[in-house]
Amino acid sequence: MTYQQLITDHAHDPEQLERAYQAAVKAGQGGAFQQAIEAGRASDPDNLLYAAWHYRLRDVAAAVKTSFVRWGWAVPLALLNGLLFWWLSDEERYSIQIAGGPPGASTFLPTLLLLVAPLAAVFVLAYLAPVRRRWPLAVLIGVVLLAAAGYVLWVYPRLGTRPFQEQYITLMAMHLPLLAWAGVGLYLVAGHRDPGNRFAFLIKSLEVVIMGGLFAIAGGLFTGITIALFSALGMEPSELVMRLFIAGGGGLIPVIAVAVIYNAARPPAGQSFEDGLSKLLATLMRTLLPLTLVVLVVYIGFVLLNFREPFENRDVLIIYNGMLFAVIALLVGATPVSLAETSPRVANALRWAIVAVAGLALLVSVYALAAIVYRTAMDRLTPNRLTFIGWNVVNIGLLALVVWAGARGRAADWLPRLHRAFTIGTVAYAVWTLAMILVLPWLFGIDQGALDTLPPAVRAVVYESPDPILLKCAGSPHIYLLDDGEKRWIDTIATFTERGYVWGDVHFVPCDELHSLPDGEPIPADAGPPPPP
Question: Against a cut of 0.90, is the pTM above it?
Fold first, then answer.
């Protein structure tokens, strides 16, 4: 039986409601009980028992607002994380080189960019674990996150071609933070897996990000002023000192931001959401909702006037996807944890504003997905395209679920349904993130041993260009497809065109190197004996 149904059945039985509340608090679901009370109060505003519970739970929430930051534990952990970041920020010692390239290939990314989120999550878990007393789970999640980062560093050379290696590493710099966030969330909602707690974690996540951004701005100003002061005396900080300010200072932020925002002694739904940054975030996001609605309406009008633009311009498509993720974050931030301090009229307006913004964003998301699929069909499937096709599918599903959950049913039930929709979307995001980390190198990987046996010029082509690899030499009219180390003769231009190949895919190599490749099955298979280059 849900809390909503229990409260409805016992709306005039104070003792039964008290027992239900104490059981909910013991199970870490006090927030879910409060949401059910507020839903009942919205449907029956004249019920005095609902009103009494409303004020009682508001007073309970106020009592939670006392200081809860354990500075004696947070500061040492933050300092240790900062020192580790500072040590790993030495790019001469810790950097990612694209595998298989010519000698002396330049560094692609600092290794720290792949390690920063898993390491930060480990220290955040170390801050939370002594209070929540779930050390085995914290250790398990920390090991999995560090193993994921190690897996990426181990497996990326398998992608072989430089573009695919670079795409995978860049994608992982975005996906490992998502996995780390999901790991911390899994730890916090363990034992409190109801939609109310999961959604409360999403809200607190936004608050931590904003607080971290404020700390970063303050740290940047402090660093800039310090450098300016020493420069005025003719003293330039060394590279070692600069790394200590930038990387080391950045390492302090995750633990401190979590310590300031999150009360480790309470589950997500038991946090305070009615004051400070929580109230500022909710007010800001809800103020932006009508503005976003106007912008989306105007934007869709421009889409109709420039319908082909994202189909032909990759940069426009990237902007579309970035906008969609921003809109989803806005929808999460604008959705209240409870309606305790919201009048029925305002709650109803908020409900339909969320539905309207989600509906328009859904149209744009379907449009963006169509553009990615079209570009893939016209060219080839790449790690980037597969990843963002999946993200768009998840976004479409989430936005459709938000519209459905917000628009249907009774007004009193819309908020729990919306929480459930967002938590389902969160699980989908986490699953797709993990799938991309694990699967991409094997879907787009090549046999490095076979690559090393290719002639130098052919190997250089494979290193710089993803499949299909079409080869030709200047002294021959024939074109060949490189397939598993063999050259496959394409019999006619008609066959070449029918298979979707374009002249831009053809690479010229020396005739002797092309001749040295073993012959494979011609295209089509009944084309006859392949001619020599």
Answer: no
